[in-house]
Task: inverse folding
């Protein structure tokens, strides 16, 4: 048997056990992982640093910023007008807004008033001894069930919760096109099931009653157009 020389063995060993090369993709992935880890740690540090600063400035400790948000809402409430004056083609109706009980709805209502959304809006339906409705469309919406015959004032609950001259809007999504206004003209037992009450008429009840007395067709639509000309917002009256 022929002997292999030591020098030949050394060369064969180098060929078999040569170091493996690291691919460029592997290096890139490792670098990306390190970069993401550093970014995550930095973001976490920024979050807790900012939260600590807010708590220090507000003088309160809060979980997930709940108390900070509450302070923001309270601050915003103080800047929202407390009254709305509806200038209609029949006269003025002054409404006190329930900022504490229905803040989000009042906030949306005020925003739409400032945009002039209600300017020229018609009173689409008048249901005597129930409600008058101002809206952009002819749909009865929340008032549909109130058109059923057989309901009389003697059947109505007269508790303060359901009293007359309350301002509300439907519980549907409150976007710019579906924000309807309802003013009750009598106590309605299922009022809070149908609408979100966010105000009360404090002046101009006679105007509401005058609108209620207009002639309507079989679909409860006024035969003569009655409109909201504009709405003025006031902090106090």
Result:
């Amino acid at each position: 048997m022929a002997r292999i020389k030591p020098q030949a063995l050394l060369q064969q060993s180098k060929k078999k056990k040569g170091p493996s090369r690291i691919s460029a993709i592997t290096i890139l992935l490792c670098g990306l992982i390190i970069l993401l880890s550093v970014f995550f740690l930095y973001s976490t540090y920024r979050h807790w640093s900012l939260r600590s600063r807010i708590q220090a400035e507000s003088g309160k400790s809060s979980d997930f910023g709940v108390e900070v948000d509450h302070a923001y809402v309270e601050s915003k409430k103080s800047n929202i007008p407390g009254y709305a004056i509806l200038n209609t083609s029949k006269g003025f109706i002054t409404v006190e807004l329930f900022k504490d009980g229905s803040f989000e709805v009042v906030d949306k209502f005020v925003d739409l008033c400032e945009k002039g959304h209600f300017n020229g809006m018609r009173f689409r339906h008048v249901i005597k001894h129930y409600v008058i409705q101002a809206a952009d469309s002819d749909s009865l919406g929340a008032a549909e069930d109130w058109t059923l015959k057989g309901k009389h004032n003697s059947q109505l609950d007269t508790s303060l919760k359901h009293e007359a001259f309350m301002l509300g809007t439907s519980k549907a999504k409150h976007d710019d096109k579906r924000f309807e206004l309802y003013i009750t003209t009598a106590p309605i037992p299922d009022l809070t099931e149908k609408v979100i009450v966010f105000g009360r008429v404090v002046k101009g009840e006679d105007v509401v009653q005058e609108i209620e007395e207009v002639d309507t067709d079989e679909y409860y639509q006024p035969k003569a157009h009655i409109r909201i000309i504009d709405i003025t917002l006031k902090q106090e009256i």
Remarks:
- Residues 24-58 form the longest helix (35 residues).
